[in-house]
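Late entry, evening session. Most of the bench is empty. Finally got around to the prediction I had been postponing all week. Sequence below, unchanged from the version circulated by S.P.
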Amino acid sequence: MSSESHSDLPEAKETQLCVSCMAPNEPSAHFCAKCGAPLTSYASTGPFESLFAEGSVYRSAVERPQKPIVVFGVWLIFGTMTVAGILIASLNLSDMDIWGRMIGVLIGVALVTVSATMIWKTTRNYLARKKTDERHDS
């Protein structure tokens, strides 16, 4: 038996593991320091914090889509945003001044850019994951 007593051993630091990426976090943390996933119920229910929790869900859907229904959902949500962006950018309201029309076009282009990027990344990551799974199965 060891001659060291329990008081001579270094004290283990308590950490909280992220269920999404398994990274260690401080016990008082509400969000993962590595991936941003919510760690506590407060992170999902606090008014401001719920925005970050929702962002974590979108990031997870885009980066690691597991099922085709997730890809379909992203297409549904962001496809609607793409159509809205095209409509906003193409509206030609003659009663608006040039600055109002420019702002409308910029907002429309921003919506189309963000939503098309989300659709493209989700679809690409799902198809790449599917090919990787097929290679590992054979």
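Two things to note before I forget:
Helices lie at 41-45, 49-63, 68-90, 98-137.
Residues 10-63 form one domain.
Will write this up properly tomorrow.
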